[in-house]
Amino acid sequence: MPLARPSSIRRATVLIVALLIAGICTVVARAAPSGTAAEMPGPHNQAQAIADGQAAGIERSNIPGSTAALSAAPKKANAASPNLSAAAAAPAPGSGARVPGFVSFHVYATQYAPNTQGSLEVAVPDQCVKFAALGLTDQMSRVGCRSNGYPLNGDYRVFVSSDDTGKNAFVPVKDVGPWNIDDNYWDPSDGTFPRPRRMFTDLPQGTPESQAAFYQDYNNVSNCKDLNNNPTGHGGGADQFGRCVLNPSAIDLSFAAASQLGMTGSGWVTVSYLWEPLVPGYTLDDWGGIHPYGGAPSVQGTGWWPGKDIARGIVTRSDHQSGYTLDESGGIHPFGGAPNVQGTGWWPGADVARGISLDPTDSSGTSGYVVDKQGGIHEFGTAPPVTTTGWWPGQDAARGITVTGRGKGFTVDLFGGIHPFGNAPSVQVTGYWPGKDVVRGVVAITGSEGYVLDLYGGIHPFGGAPPVSGESYWPGKDVARGIDYTFTFQGGYVVDLYGGIHQFGAAPATIGSWYQYGKDMARGIAG
To answer: Are residues 326 and 266 in the same domain?
Structure first.
């Protein structure tokens, strides 16, 4: 899609002034006269783009903070040989820094003269990020940016750490490029994600198309174009416009941004994308498999029943990387290094257990309660025995449990009724469906407030909790399978039957590691 630019005269003036004053050798012009072939993201200077490719050295890993080599040289016929000596340089002290809790990748950076001389900014190859950052709603609508994926109040900045200098800087996104405008390579390709990768979805998350094209001849075009949009007569890895990719750049730094980083040319950097927060947690499948999301580490569990629908619930401890799963017979299985606990409810060979919750006031994260299908509550760890106000002998009526403090909390029945136990107060509900099996989960946010999840994905406050809107809703379909709340963001997540994760309230989008389309396998979520 053509992007309007200032006049060529203004571009040339800015470029010359920047070169003379800053003495920076790596230049990518951002502007072009309206209606010309250069109405697309940089680079526009053929010689400089080739020089940046030579300076890139061998391909590096995209793992955050990494300087590991992946290949010896580009496979492209149209690329000049890289300077392999660049690979021998040790990273500077302090390099590889990133912001914890946000998506981060290691990529190659070039420089450009911004439309506003002296502006501290960067360009990334996602036009939707640019438009959202600048509040250009008409453009967002015109190119089809997902409104739920690119909120106007997002933090559209990057944190950049230079391999060469070890210096770091926070910089806002104000432009698009280099090379592509629809390669949000930092996002997953999964279509359930609010901002799925729009192009080049066969590439691994974190691998920019320009890097794959430069080093691996990805997206080969038999007669790729030069930067003036003229056929070159030879093939090679190309960008989304069919231009021969001459360097692996995946982020452009304005001269001012590069100056803050102490960079005098192009170079490898680690980038944290601050509109992509990671809220770690796990989903549970029916076999007992535990799947990380939002940057949580992979963990080993002790409960695993391949091919069988056995798992019934999952909870995490305060470290967000260990916890317990619950099986249908009441067995409690530690994962991620959590200690073993002794439960008081056990029904071998029977499908009885319906939910598990830890006591949030227990700093050890080893005590809590299990609810059975009749509403009976069974303590584990050091939790005290309790009595409940919800009890349905001989019926499969309970659908979840949430603990608010030592010896108190709530259970929820299939109709939406909330039943306090211990000395928890009675509460008012906003969702109730008598005679219908509608409820799929419950979570408390205070000692008297929380939310009930219905099978369609609807989230219903109880006890005076504020209303929240969910990212996904499936009217008439039994899709939702679990709910979790994160106090940091005053919102949370719903997991659907396939394992898709959907935010609600103020929680940011998160990235899952597991999805089984067409299979009803998800059984819980915990962060």
So the answer is: no
> Would you state the pLDDT for residue 9?
33
227-260 pLDDT, tens digit per residue, is: 999 999 999 999 999 999 999 999 999 999 999 9
Domain annotation covers residue 339: yes
First CA to last CA distance, the chain:
40
Residue 89 has a pLDDT of: 63
A 10 A CB-CB count for 73 gives: 13
Cα separation, 99 vs 109, whole angstroms: 18
Residue 2 lies inside a defined structural domain of this protein: no
All residues at 6 or more sequence positions from 162 whose CB lies less than 8 Å from its CB, including other chains: 92, 95, 168, 261, 262, 263, 267, 269
Selection from 152, 194, 169, 156 nearest residue 99 by Cα: 169
Dihedral, 77, 122, 106, 514 alpha carbons, nearest 10: -100
- Cα gap 304→265, rounded to integer Å: 52
Domain boundary among 277, 301, 324: 277
Alpha helices in 81-193 (DSSP H): 127-134, 137-143
What does the DSSP 8-state code read for residue 243? B
412-434 per-position pLDDT tens digit: 999 999 999 999 999 999 999 99
Which of 277, 294, 326 is where one domain is finished?
A: 277
Q: Could you tell me the pLDDT band of residue 73, with boundaries at 50, 70 and 90?
A: low
Per-residue pLDDT, averaged over 199-205, amounts to 95
What does the H/E/C string look like for 399-416? Answer: EEEEEEECCEEEEEECCC
Report if residue 3 sits inside a domain. no
Contacts of 366 (CB under 8 A, 6+ apart): 317, 338, 339, 341, 381, 382
Q: What is the CATH number of the domain that holds 424?
A: 2.120.10.30
The total domain count for the chain is: 2
- Give this prediction's pTM: 0.62
Residues 338 and 300 in one domain: yes
Do residues 219 and 322 share a domain? no
Are 382 and 332 part of one and the same domain?
yes
Residue 405 near residue 445, CB atoms below 8 Å = no
**pLDDT at res. 75:** 54
Does residue 1 lie within any of the structural domains? no
What single DSSP character describes residue 86?
G
Whether 518 and 441 share a structural domain? yes
SS (H, E, C) 64-83: CCCCCECCCCCCCCCCCCCC
418: β partners: 412
Output Rg (C-alpha) for the chain, integer angstroms.
27
**Which tokens in the block code for residue 27?**
């230049």
Nearest-angstrom CA–CA distance, 154 and 136: 13
State whether 260 and 356 are in the same domain.
no
Same domain, 234 and 319: no
pLDDT tens per residue, range 42-58 = 999 999 999 999 999 99
Given a contact cutoff of 8 angstroms between Cβ atoms, the answer to whether 200 and 525 are in contact is no
Q: Which domain holds residue 70?
A: 8-277
Q: Is the same domain home to 419 and 497?
A: yes
